[in-house]
Amino acid sequence: RSREVDLIYLKDKIGQESHYAPSVFSFFLAEYQPIGPVLDMNLVAPEAQLFDAPKLIGFLNGMANLPFYGIADCEDGKGFGPFFFSRFKITDHPDERWYQCHEAGSLNPDTHVPHRFRWLPESNASPAEIVSEMDLLLTGGRLSSMNKGIITQAYAVAAEAYGDATALQHAISHFAAAPEFHVTNDLFSNETQLHERTSTVPDIPENPPPVTDYKAIVYIYLQGALDSYSLLMPNVCANGLNTQYHQVRGDIAIANHRHLVINSIGDQPCSKFGVHPEMGYIQQLYNMGEASFVANIGPLFEPIADNIEFKQGTKQVPPSLFAHNVQTAETQGVSTGDATAGGILGRIGDAINMQAGEEVFDAYSVFGTPLALEGAPGVSRPADVLTEVGVSSFTPTPSMFEHNIVEMNKHVADSIYGETFSEAISSAILRKNLLEQSIGDSLLDATTEACFTRLETPISNQFKQVTRIIAQRNNLQSKRDVFYVQLGSFDSHSDNYFGTAEKLSMLNGAIQCFANNMKGNGLWNDVTVMSASEFGRTLTSNGAGTDHAWGGNHFIAGGSIAGGKIHGKYPDDLSENGPLNIGRGRLIPTTSWEGLWKGVAEWFGVESQNMAFVLPNLSNFQTNVFGKTDLYK
Q: pLDDT of 127-166, one tens digit each?
C-alpha cells in the first residue's frame, strides 16, 4: 500500500533485471540451443541461457527465501530484496520501522512483513490435500506423483516439528525447485517407466598426487568488438603507413608519443609498432619474449584475396557479417556456418578426452555460458560456471531441502524443456558440491590477494577465480583446463578513446596479477592467455567513435610463447582504396581463427588425426596458418 516494490540487483542474482538488458539484443539470444534434448530436436530455448549454476542457485536462493522473509535481503543478502532498505514494514502498521530478519522468520503475523505470500489452505486440510491445491495453483495440476509425494512429506515433517504455518513455507519453497514449475507440459509420459540420470559424484582425495603435464588456456573474450587498430598501431614504417594511419583514423588516432613502442621482425610493413598506452604489461611481456600479436585476424570460411574477390561473390563468407550475435558464434565456434558444432574450446576438450580414453579435461566459465566451451554431449563434462566472487552456494533455507531438490530432478524427463531444467539443476548442484570442497574459501598467497584486491574490477575478479582453480589443480585432478573470462562494453560507437582505454587498463592489470602468480608458482610456462572479439571496428570515425568491421588484432601470451613476434600480415594500406578495404575501413581478415588455433591446439595436446574435428575448415587455408613451432618455444 503506497509502497514501491524495490527489485534491484537481480541481474547479479538471477541474470536479468528490468531496464538492465545485457546488450541491445535484450536478455536472450533467440537462436540459443542448450546442449541436450533441445539441441537434439533442433529447437531453441532462449531463456535456458540462464541455466548456469550461479543463476540457477541464485534463483532458488531467492525463491526459497520469499515465503519466509518476503522481498528482503535476509540470508547474506541473497534474497530478492536490495539490502536492508527493503525490510520496511508496510505503511498501515502503527510502528513503521525496519524489521529484523528474525522477526520475519518467526512468522509472527504482527510483524506485517511486506511481500510475503498470504495464501492459506483450509484449516482442516491434510498435507496431501494442501499440496494438491498448491499443485493446482502453482503447476496447473501437472506435478508428478513422485514430486507431489516429496513435497507432501516435506510439509508433514515441518508441520510436526514447527507447525502448519512453517510447513506451508517449506512446501512453497519446494515448488520453485520442481521442474513442473518451469514448464507447461507433463514431465513424464509414463511414470511407471522412469530412468534415473547417471551422474558420478567425484571425491576429493585426502592427499591427492600432484598433477603432471598440466596445461591451461585462458580465453579472454572482449565483448562488443574491441577497436583493435588502437591495440596495435603502425609507428615507424618505411611506406608512410603511420601517416596514413593518422589520416584515416582522424579523431580516433592515438598520437605517436603515446604509443608503447615494440620492435617488429619478419615481413611486416613497419619496423616498430605501437601498443595501446594502457597495455603496458602486454608490451612488457612482448619485449620479454612472452607475448605475440596476431594481425588482421577474423572469421573466414576460405581465404579472400581482396575487395575485388569479395565483391564478385565467388568466395563463401561467414554469415551476417558485422552482427554481434552471429559473429560471436563464428568467433567462439570457429566452424563457419555450422550452428551445431559447439565451441572451439569444447571441441579441443573432446579431442583431448577421446585421446586419453578418460576425462582429463575440465572447462570453467567465470562469465555465463559461452559457446566457446560447448563440447559434444557425453564426451566431456559441461563447463562449470562460477561468478567473479567464486562458487555459488545455497543459503541456509534451500540448504535444508537440497536433498529434495536433487530427488525431484533425478529422473530423465520426457518433457524436452523439463529435462533441460532438471539436468541443469542436477549438474549445478553436483559440481557446486565438488567445487565447494576443493576451492571453497581458499585464499591465494598474500601478494596475489593484495594485487587483485587493489584492482577490484570485474575482469580482475574473474582472473582471481581462474588463479584459485589452477591453485587447486591437484584436488581437482585435471591435466587440461580451459577458462573463459569476459570483459564487455567494447561496442564503441560513441567512444573515441576513454571508455576503451579504461577497460584495457582493467584488463592489463588483471593479466599482470595473474601472470605474476603463475610465475611465482612455476606455472607460467604451462599457461596460454589469448584475446578474442567478435570482429574489429572501422578504421574511420563515425564522428563519435567507430562501427562494426571485420578483421582485427589480438594477442597471445604465456611462458612458452615464442614472443616478440607479430604473426600474420599487418595491412600495408589502410586507405579507402586499400585492397582489403570493403568500405569505411572494414578490412578483410588475412588470417583466419583456424590459423591461430591450430598451434594452440597442438600445444595443448590435440593430435594431428583429430585436428580436422577441432578445426573443420582448416584444410581451406594454406597460408597464415601457425603451428606449435611457430607460436611456441
A: 999 999 999 999 999 999 999 999 999 999 999 998 888 8
Cell of 220: 579472454
Distances (CA, A) of 71 to 21, 101, 114, 123, 400: 22, 11, 7, 26, 20
Q: Please tell me the least confidently modeled range out of 180-194, 424-438, 471-485, 544-558.
A: 424-438
- Tell me if 253 sits within 8 A of 265, measured CB to CB: no
**What are the φ and ψ backbone dihedral angles of 107, each rounded to 5 degrees?**
65, 15
Q: Give the three-class secondary structure for 483.
A: strand
CA 305 to chain centre: 35
DSSP code for 307:
H
Helices vs. strands in the chain: H and E counts, helices first: 22, 12
Give the HSE-up count for residue 399: Cα atoms under 13 Å, Cβ half-sphere.
8
Cell of 444: 591465494
Q: How far apart are CA 605 and CA 607, in angstroms?
A: 6
CA dihedral 119, 121, 126, 129 (to 10 degrees): -80
Average pLDDT over residues 463-487: 95
- Cβ–Cβ under 8 Å, residues 343 and 363: no
* pLDDT of res. 31: 83
Quick one: cell of 394? 545455497
Report yes or no: 567 and 295 within 8 Å, Cβ to Cβ: yes
Compute the average pLDDT of residues 367-396: 87
Q: What is the rounded CA–CA span in Å between residue 60 and residue 183?
A: 16
Q: Which residue has the cell 582453480?
A: 469
The C-alpha cell that represents 203 in the structure block: 571425491
CB atoms closer than 10 angstroms to residue 442: 12
With cut-offs at 50, 70 and 90, classify the pLDDT of residue 1. very low
Confirm if 78 and 395 have CB atoms less than 8 A apart: yes
Mapped onto helix, strand or coil, the DSSP state of residue 216 is: strand
Q: Give me the helices (H) in 210-288, please.
A: 241-249, 280-287
| Crossing angle of helices 127-139 and 164-175, rounded to 10° | 40
Distances (CA, A) of 385 to 24, 57, 171: 24, 11, 29
DSSP symbol at 387: B
The b/e string for 106-124 (b: 16+ C-beta within 10 A; e otherwise) is ebeeebbbbbbeeeebeee
**Residues 171-211: tens digit of each pLDDT:** 999 999 999 999 999 999 998 889 998 876 667 777 888 99
Supply the DSSP string of 547-574, one letter for each residue. Answer: -B-S-EEEEEE-TTB--S-EES---S--
User: In this structure, which amino acid lies at residue 601?
Assistant: A
Amino acid making up residue 513: C
Which residues are 217's β-sheet partners? Answer: 482, 528
Q: How many residues does the chain have?
A: 633
Grid coordinates representing 413? 524427463
Q: Is the pLDDT of residue 115 over 60?
A: no
Q: What is the pLDDT of residues 252-272, one digit of tens each?
A: 999 999 999 999 988 999 999
